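Fold this complex.
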Amino acid sequence: MAWELNSDRPIYAQILEKLQVRIVCGTYKPGEWLPSVRDLAAEASVNPNTMQRAFTELERSGLVITQRNMGRVVTQDVQLIEAAKHRMAVTQMNSFFENMRQLGYSDGEIISLVNQTANTADNTNT
Amino acid sequence: MAWELNSDRPIYAQILEKLQVRIVCGTYKPGEWLPSVRDLAAEASVNPNTMQRAFTELERSGLVITQRNMGRVVTQDVQLIEAAKHRMAVTQMNSFFENMRQLGYSDGEIISLVNQTANTADNTNT
DNA sequence: TAAAGTGTATTAGATAAATAGTACACTAAC
DNA sequence: GTTAGTGTACTATTTATCTAATACACTTTA
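Structure:
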């Protein structure tokens, strides 16, 4: 599983986002036990402290529940997961529109460009 | 003019992007003299060294030309500016699609959501 | 009981980024 | 010539992040 961490943002923040994505997109399923902090840190080639910090931040969203001395599980509250997914999508949408408008594109142009991009097959490997 | 710098990324990188945007969207027009490093630093509430670093990086794109001991001007090469604008738009589009797909949305759903968001009037102040 | 595996906490060191303060060489305007 | 305003360079300090290396309390399992 690729983590693809780069150095232009704090690593713990990148890990936090990736964990959120994996939960809302179903890679980690509701009620499922997560790998241990040490294992995930090794998988991501990162210090355990860094992974721990990412989880500490992730706790607050309620998407994972820590069962001390046993591990962590993904919440079984599918509505909470769906709400997080929706919230992340809205954030993506708004920042996308804001950035495109700042570049000088009208909403019509944005829609047109989105349709073009969606109809292009080879835009997944950029 | 609002700079809206936050701490989750290097400040010089954020400034660099904002300067690029201001050039491609016409806030700073072709051939126009830019404010001095010291003035811009004061305007952005940032150390002059940080603003200087942003400009040093910006030089490489060719969007601004430094005339030593006199100041900096925006390039008059409108094709270069247009190319930069297009490149930034493509980058925005691709990362947007990548992120939305990772969240589990199909291209059809993305297009639908984009249309909804564009038709919503109050999404500029989020 | 003993061992292995959890989350968690702590201390120390390394690195990058931002700030602060100062200085230099040059140009334009007075 | 003098002064003000450019870009640029330099050192030192502070802060945040990441790493490294332990250590502890607890649960599960053998």
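The interface with chain B takes residues 8-10, 13, 21, 24-26, 85, 88-89, 92-94, 96-105, 107-108, 110-111, 113-115, 117-118, 123-124, 126 of chain A (CB under 8 Å).
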